[in-house]
Amino acid sequence: MIPVPPTPPDHVGPEELPSLTPSAASPLVPAPPAIQASAPTWAVLETVEAGDVLVLDTEHPGELRRSASPSDPNVVGVAAADSVKADGSLKATLVDTLYPSVKADAATAPIRPGDLLVSGATPGHVMRAPEGAALATIVGKAMQALESGTGRVTISRTPR
Question: What does the alpha-carbon distance between residue 133 and residue 72 come to, in Å, rounded to a whole number?
């Protein structure tokens, strides 16, 4: 007789994924030290915080800024840490983990696990993607819910 695998749970929440869940002390899942040391930094036009969604700044080639418009096709990733002053300019590192914690805004629609997320109108935040969102605008898929207001959610990041 062939053994039957157990039925997967209907809901996988933070309690089932402790290594993927952000905490107040560590808002992002840390990358291994060897990866952190080699992660490139990018020039940013403004101060950014860990979890901010970043986009290419079309007016300043080679620099990033916080997203500020819904479904921005220039999205490049999520800030891994707060920006720092280096070589006379602000620099930021993008997350290299697949499950970062990002700033989210559920003011226009609640975010549910499994929802696709895009940049929102609130600077640096994601929101639930509209129906038919272009692939280039997708930041990731929600792993946690946010019913209303702003907060943080863990996402499964869409690789760029």
Answer: 10
